[in-house]
Automatic annotation (TrEMBL):
PANTHER family: MALTOSE-BINDING PERIPLASMIC PROTEIN (PTHR30061), MALTOSE_MALTODEXTRIN-BINDING PERIPLASMIC PROTEIN (PTHR30061:SF50). It comes from Streptacidiphilus alkalitolerans. This is Extracellular solute-binding protein. Keywords: Signal, Transport. Belongs to the bacterial solute-binding protein 1 family. Residues 1-27 form the signal peptide. SUPFAM superfamilies: Periplasmic binding protein-like II. InterPro entries: SBP (IPR006059). It holds the Pfam family SBP_bac_8. The keyword Glycosyltransferase does not apply.
Amino acid sequence: MRSVSRHVMLACLATATAVGVLASASACSSSTKTAPGSSAKAGGTYTFWDPYPQFDATSDWARLVSSCGTQAGVTVKRTSLDTTDLANKALLAGQQGNSPDVMLVDNPVVSTLVEAGILNKTSDLGLDTSAIQPNIIGAGTVDKSAYGIPIGANTLALYYNTDILAKAGVDPASITDWASLTAALQKVKAAGKKGITFSAIGTEEGSFQFLPWFWGAGADLTKLDSAQGDAALSLWKGWAGAGLAPNDVLSNTQTTSWQEFATGQYAFGENGTWQLGNAAKAGFKYGVISIPAQAGGPAPAPTGGEFVTVPVQKDSSRYATSKKIVSCLTNDTNLLATDTTLSYIAPVAAVQTQQVAQNAALKPWVAAVAAAKGRTSNGLGTKYPIISEQLWTAVQGALSGSKSPQAALAAAQQTAASKTG
């Protein structure tokens, strides 16, 4: 999870499916592959879609995809699309019986594609997922069956400015719950610096950033208006009202929130693993701690990241080669290289150990990922985009002052319940 496009698409998928936007035949014009009805023989071309347009044909990622095809005895034709475009085209391609052989998709999209009947179970393909952390594979699991293999995971934590905390007399190790965090913010403000910045924008990014606090209070997405949910939203509103968080969190994306933290004026910034490269260039010393739960300990943060999936084909003999490509992309050696490039945490403990050995700064992120959970887990599936939209609407309403946290969440719950049945 690293940009607004990764989140906006969730709502778009639900809307597009409902109104039939995906009926445009031109939407899949970029797909070319061996005809679905042809048999898979040695050699030939296999198609692969991914959401990484930032990696061109000369990148390490593109070379890895190509080499995995070579090892499987085929040529891989890679198509790279924006996450939203990829998901929409995947739905259309599945309807037309013209899906790519292998596809890398954002984890919340998996349940939508499964509901559409587009993806194969990993167990049916003979792919082993036993070594993958349960909470990470859970984001791609529907009715107890996995439908892909995670390439890695990212999540959220709190970056902190070491110098600001030291001058304010705050020991980051003392921040273990909401009360100690709020006390730290008050000390920072009294010392003449700014408290915490985050993203509360009215998109999936806003929900993504609010979820650690929502879940950290013990709230559940099936009951948005619980006392626990009210406590989480009241925490954010209280910070904004007391000047411990800026008013522009209402319009902050995760990128602009990071830019605020990178000015060196803020003590804390809620953000993800994908900012590690930028953190190293920030020009000041920083550290990372887990987002604390209300009563103490790390709060569950949402998992981001993509799953390698094998879409349904008319010619099932193609699956054997597709399995080889997936196995190559997700073996321990290649996961280490890929997750290092993406600033992801590997989905298996053995590779996580190697990552921390190479870069000690990843240690708190391994802990954060271990505490994280999937947004579509616990049977939410395709209900999640609907619930999430109501959640970010409630956050916007409360922080803007148009409604109290309790009233905003009550309205959100009523709408979410009516739309999810």
